[in-house]
Automatic annotation (TrEMBL):
It comes from the Bacteria. This is Esterase family protein. InterPro entries: AB_hydrolase_fold, Esterase-like, Mycobacterial_A85_antigen. PANTHER family: ENTEROCHELIN ESTERASE-RELATED, IRON(III) ENTEROBACTIN ESTERASE. SUPFAM superfamilies: alpha/beta-Hydrolases. Coiled coil: none annotated. It comes from Paenibacillus monticola.
């Protein structure tokens, strides 16, 4: 038997030099079925890029959505991270946090937009992340609202520092965020402590809504694992792409 057509994919690996981080950063880029450089495409940028491809199976999901659900073809850019410094880059109290935001907004985005036919409006750029990747995606939008206003958060790790920064915002009516959290994530141990992700996400949802953001929020049976997020990823992508 031949493999399903949505399993056939083109994934390009690129490495760029970041002046802000003073190191190379690896990207993996999914090009959709029928990719054509004369066309233009919506784009999904993923934190934890390697995990989104390997454990989230986002390339297979994208192929299925495009070929079976008739979603407009889109490009995916996975930004890889060194797990050893992930918290330092993704958490607002991290030593590399500001440099990472600058790398993303001022180096990765221009590189992709120079080399690939992605659309350049905030409505057609989606930032996706799991756990701390979800929170750093939100912080990227707060730092670069002219670039990003669509956030896909899988069990976002909205630590107290993130919520404090959110509380200082006055008008988030420009922001659209899709949030999902697992009901079994009530005492998840991270490298900085044990957190109740359900309460954390409920409080963040309330903060966002009180400042005018558009929030699509759901709680499902699930743990803080890719097995849960992979099952939820299609619905979250469809929220932004099925329009």
């Amino acid at each position: 038997m031949s493999e399903p057509v949505f399993l056939k994919r083109t994934i390009v690996k690129q490495t760029i030099w970041s002046e802000h981080l003073q190191e190379d950063r690896k990207l993996r880029i999914y090009l959709p079925p029928g990719y054509n450089e004369v066309l233009s495409y919506p784009v999904v940028y993923c934190q934890d890029g390697e995990e989104f491809f390997n454990f989230g199976r986002i390339a297979t999901l994208a192929g299925r959505l495009i070929l079976e659900e008739d979603i407009e073809p889109f490009i995916i850019v996975g930004v890889e991270v060194d797990v050893a410094v992930r918290t330092q880059e993704y958490a607002p109290f991290g030593s590399r946090f500001k440099q990472y935001l600058s790398c993303f907004g001022e180096e990765i985005i221009p590189y992709i937009e120079h080399n690939y036919p992605v659309r350049r409006t905030p409505a057609e750029r989606i930032l996706a992340g799991d756990s701390l990747g979800g929170s750093v995606s939100l912080h990227l939008a707060l730092a670069y609202p002219s670039i990003f206003n669509r956030i896909l958060s899988l069990s976002g790790a909205f630590y107290p520092e993130s919520r404090e920064m959110l509380a200082q915002e006055e008008d988030l009516s420009w922001l659209n965020i899709n949030m999902v959290v697992g009901l079994q994530e009530t005492d998840y141990k991270t490298d900085t402590g044990i957190y109740n992700f359900v309460e954390m996400n409920r409080e963040t949802k309330a903060l966002l809504e009180s400042r005018g953001a558009t929030v699509s929020y759901r709680e499902k049976d699930g743990r803080h694992l890719w097995g849960f997020w992979q099952n939820e990823l299609s619905e979250s992508l469809l929220y932004f792409l099925n329009t």
